Amino acid sequence: MHIAVLGMGRMGRAVAGRLLDGGHRVTVWNRTEGKAAELISAGATEAGTVAAAVSGVDAALTALADDAAVTSVAFGELQTSLDSGTPYIDCSTVSPALGAALADGFGDRFLALPIVGGPGTVTAGKATLLAGGPAQLRERLAPLLGTLSERVRHYDSAAHALTAKVTTNFLLISGVAALAEAFTVGRSGGLGDDQLRELLADAPVVAPAVANRFDAVLTASPDGWWTTVLGAKDAGLAVDIAAEAGAHLPLAEIVRTRYEDAARTNPGADIAAIAALYRDGGDSAQV
């Protein structure tokens, strides 16, 4: 298949690379040039515009940061340039409301495909794909989905797939925040970092996805791909989904505020950097 991948953040690059490795022809586009050098060396073609990227493709795929970015691209040049009947896939973590709007705007050729797993997991073909859209479209795109991963969960609508993604994301970002506070409890009581590592690194109370960031949270490392800005965004999506149904999530509101606080200090840092709020005279007392 010939696939256009729009958005060259870390996830977009991982998806494009996985498709290239699977033998697909890939054209890439990014609002800011210069992020696709490795992909171009591996055989991808870079387009200067969305219209050029999607010309003649078998499917177009976006991997963008948030609702605003997806809305701008999807309901802008993509919608006016994509050939009638060509599938449009969005891998971004956005609101279910936007997913429903995209399904309305693009009809039965739209598939929401949020991805559970980081860029490294995508590259290894071990991510879980949450495919939300018409069954016939999911079947049509089976070669593409199979290249990305064998782990596909199917949903009857884009909104349901996106709700599933926000549900999983909230568990991770809240778990990372809780781990940062658990470390603060231990340190406040006199435990050293080596003792905390010995106590908790392999403890069953720490979920595997949180455990993957154990040392990063322990050291408040800024290195990683899921930024504090995105953490705040995802917690906000959880709050909004629940509010639509009349439910109140006080914990999610606190988690969102904590990531917003961390983002003000270092917006490009990984979610593990939330731990910096509790170190070196941080403002943990305000929680």
Please name the defining characteristics of this protein.
52% helix; 14 helices; N-(1-d-carboxylethyl)-l-norvaline Dehydrogenase, domain 2; single chain; 9 strands; globular; 6-stranded parallel sheet; 287 residues; Rossmann fold; alpha/beta; 3-stranded mixed sheet
Q: Say which CATH homologous superfamily of the largest domain is assigned.
A: NAD(P)-binding Rossmann-like Domain
Strand content: 5-15%
The strand line-up of the biggest sheet is 3-2-1-4-5-6
Question: Architecture of the largest domain in CATH?
Answer: 3-Layer(aba) Sandwich
- Number of distinct beta strands: 9
Discrete helix count: 14
What does this structure look like?
The protein is an alpha/beta fold and 287 residues long. The chain has two domains: 2-156, NAD(P)-binding Rossmann-like Domain (Rossmann fold); 162-278, N-(1-d-carboxylethyl)-l-norvaline Dehydrogenase, domain 2 (Orthogonal Bundle). It has helices at 10-21, 37-41, 50-54, 67-81, 96-106, 119-123, 135-140, 142-148, 158-188, 193-200, 208-211, 214-219, 228-244, 250-265; strands at residues 2-6, 25-29, 45-46, 59-62, 88-90, 110-112, 115-116, 128-132, 151-155. The strands form two sheets. The chain has a six-stranded parallel beta sheet, sandwiched between helices. The chain has a three-stranded mixed beta sheet with strand order 7-8-9, with helices on both faces. Helix 1 links the parallel strand 1 (2-6) and strand 2. Helix 9 packs across helix 14 and helix 13 runs antiparallel to helix 14 (250-265). The termini are far apart. 45% of the residues are buried. The mean pLDDT is 96.
